[in-house]
Design brief:
Blueprint (H helix, E strand, L loop, with lengths): L14 E6 L2 E5 L5 E9 L6 H12 L5 E6 L2 E12 L2 E11 L3 E10 L3 H13 L13 H10 L4 E8 L2 E8 H6 L2
Antiparallel strand pairs: 1-2, 2-3, 3-7, 4-5, 5-6, 6-7, 8-9
């Protein structure tokens, strides 16, 4: 738990690189992937899209963004593509416009290693919780997928129970976001 009250349950092997003031940085094994959490005073931004625009400007990043609701708060899920020095990075960010605090949570890796670390990036972002009480709820990535795609890809399937075929339906997006 951070002094700002949020909670993270990072993938195995991830370590803290720096925690100072309003920013925390974590790294995966061999420092090939990163998670950063930046906390702002709640009155700093009026909506999550402003946090996303600020971050894109700071990083000179490109990438699509989509709004969603995270635990009752205005949020944005965005792709991140940016360069730093000689390296090109790729990943994702969650921007949350809270009441007393706003958050920018980013997970990224070197562009060449993106496919290898993709699932760890998503997992690390999804481990974020606003507080200890919220950590048993679905994370921001899960809430994004559930809200954005729920029921959008309903499929029929059949299952055999002791020789009796029973039909059922499922949401392919919900299945994917639960993995």
């Amino acid at each position: 738990v951070d002094p700002h009250g949020y909670n993270l349950d990072l993938p195995i092997g991830w370590v803290s690189l720096e925690i100072s003031g309003d920013k925390a940085t974590f790294a995966g094994p061999e420092e090939c992937a990163y998670l950063q959490v930046k906390v702002f005073p709640g009155e700093g931004f009026s909506e999550a899209a402003e946090i996303s625009a600020w971050a894109a400007g700071q990083l000179m990043a490109s990438g699509d963004e989509l709004p969603f609701i995270y635990s009752g708060r205005d949020a944005v899920f965005r792709n991140l593509d940016f360069s730093s020095g000689l390296f090109n990075f790729r990943g994702y960010a969650i921007c949350i416009n809270g009441t007393d605090k706003d958050y920018f949570i980013s997970a990224f890796t070197d562009d060449e290693q993106y496919d290898q670390f993709h699932d760890f990036l998503v997992s690390s972002l999804d481990s974020f919780a606003l507080n200890l009480e919220d950590r048993d709820n679905p994370g921001p990535v899960s809430q994004f997928y559930a809200g954005s795609y729920s029921g959008a890809d309903t499929r029929a399937a059949y299952i055999d129970f002791a020789g009796r075929i029973s039909p059922f339906t499922y949401d392919a997006y919900a299945l994917e976001s639960s993995r």
